[in-house]
Amino acid sequence: MEDTVRAAECFAANVYEANYKKKNRKASIEMIKWCPPNPRWIKVNLDGAANRNRDLSMAGGVFRDSFGTQIEGFQRVVGRGYAINSELWAILHGLEITLIRGHNKFAKREGNMVADWLAKTCPSTDVNLRILDVPTFYVRKLLLEDKFGVPYVKTN
Q1: Containing domain of residue 148, as a range?
Q2: What letter does residue 55 receive in the DSSP assignment?
Q3: CA 85 → CA 49, 50, 90, 99, distances in Å?
Q4: Count of H helices and E strands in the chain?
Q5: 3-class SS of residue 17
Q6: What is the mean pLDDT of the chain?
Q7: Which of 47, 56, 60, 135 could form a disulfide with 139 if both were Cys (CB 3.0 to 4.6 A apart)?
Q8: Region at 29 (left for phi over 0; alpha for psi -120 to 50; beta for the rest)
Q9: pLDDT in tens, 14-66
Q10: How high is the pLDDT of residue 148?
């Protein structure tokens, strides 16, 4: 229970910090890379995206073990709205899958290029939650880059 409370506090602090940075935005560049969870833990990377051109919001996520191997992923169009709505849908679906699969240890979000890609490439006609048992070719590429510690550039 304490881990869950700490994770929620960390998430709230990150949301606050992101909103603060957005209001006081100065151009910055960060190098970010995915870090594996401890052995026997599962890391859940989640992301949401709002596509202004098609006015769609999408959610995606990936579950990985301590070796960086994908256990499963998901994608879903969550309707129209803002990016924050799709972020919350991604959290909800990540928690649903966690409960269904019986995972009880998971690590915080960081370096989530796979989840970002899953959220942004969700088929626009599919409103049902898509569970991805086998990673696509591009997801495998991103998973390998994460395993080898390849950083990516984050700009705001």
Answers
A1: 2-155
A2: T
A3: 9, 9, 9, 21
A4: 4, 7
A5: helix
A6: 76
A7: 135
A8: beta
A9: 655 665 555 555 667 777 778 888 888 888 888 888 877 667 888 899 999 88
A10: 78
Q: Which is higher by pLDDT, 132 or 7?
A: 132
Query: Which amino acid, one-letter code, is at 110?
Result: E
DSSP assigned state of 31: E
Q: Retrieve residue 25's tokens.
A: 């935005």
How many domains does the structure of the chain reveal?
1
Contact 51, 60 (CB under 8 A): no
Cβ atoms 37, 66 nearer than 8 A: yes
* 57 within 8 A of 82, measured Cβ to Cβ: yes
80 with 142: CB under 8 angstroms? no
What 3-state DSSP class applies to 145? helix
Tell me, what CATH number does 29's domain have?
Answer: 3.30.420
